[in-house]
């Protein structure tokens, strides 16, 4: 302290003297910084906070998801309906003598499905006459390279207790030259027996 200047403030010799900040981000020891001045490099823009991630699927994705679910439901419903209809169509119906005989004859003469035909027969049937008729048809088809189909008409039932005698005409359509067909009519008698449901037990060709 200068004695000639009694009002001059005293200077602490051990106190650091503030220095100007160099052109860097480093804050010097003893540096005086204003309260409104941001730390770091002068003029630097503070980093923006990261944007929040949008949650949810969005309208377009939600719409596509709804369409996919609806389409899947329709396909599943259609498959179930088709299965039910197919199962009903292929389920054997042995509720009456004529219905049972109709399905048996169709399986033997048209689809030639002996496994299905056996569903409509007794455990020990006497149907050798039908076997011979099918054999004759196959021989004719093989000889002339044709396909013979059958239809069934004029079913007449005579009930005798649990056994029913059913008369039926089997009409065989035999292809001729061109688009013509000849029809061979055979008269048959079948015995259909009831034992909880109707079964074909025997057959006899009448003409």
UniProtKB/TrEMBL annotation:
Keywords: Membrane, Transmembrane, Transmembrane helix
Record protein name field: Uncharacterized protein
Region annotated Disordered, chain positions: 1-51
Transmembrane segments: 63-86
UniProt KW Transmembrane helix keyword: yes
Biased composition (Basic and acidic residues): 1-10
Organism of derivation: Dactylosporangium aurantiacum
């Amino acid at each position: 302290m200068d004695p000639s200047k009694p009002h001059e403030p005293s200077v602490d010799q051990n106190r650091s003297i503030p220095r100007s900040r160099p052109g860097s981000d480093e804050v010097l020891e003893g540096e005086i910084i204003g309260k409104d001045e941001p730390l770091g490099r002068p003029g630097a823009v503070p980093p923006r906070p990261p944007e929040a991630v949008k949650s949810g699927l969005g309208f377009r994705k939600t719409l596509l998801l709804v369409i996919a679910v609806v389409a899947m439901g329709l396909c599943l419903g259609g498959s179930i309906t088709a299965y039910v209809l197919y199962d009903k169509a292929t389920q054997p119906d042995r509720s009456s003598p004529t219905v049972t005989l109709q399905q048996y004859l169709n399986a033997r003469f048209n689809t030639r499905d002996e496994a299905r035909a056996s569903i409509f027969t007794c455990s020990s049937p006497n149907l050798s006459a039908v076997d011979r008729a099918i054999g004759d048809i196959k021989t004719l088809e093989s000889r002339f390279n044709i396909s013979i189909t059958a239809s069934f008409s004029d079913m007449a039932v005579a009930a005798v207790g649990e056994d029913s005698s059913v008369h039926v005409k089997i009409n065989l359509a035999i292809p001729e030259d061109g688009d013509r067909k000849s029809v061979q009519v055979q008269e048959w008698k079948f015995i259909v027996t009831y034992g909880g449901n109707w079964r074909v037990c025997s057959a006899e060709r009448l003409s």
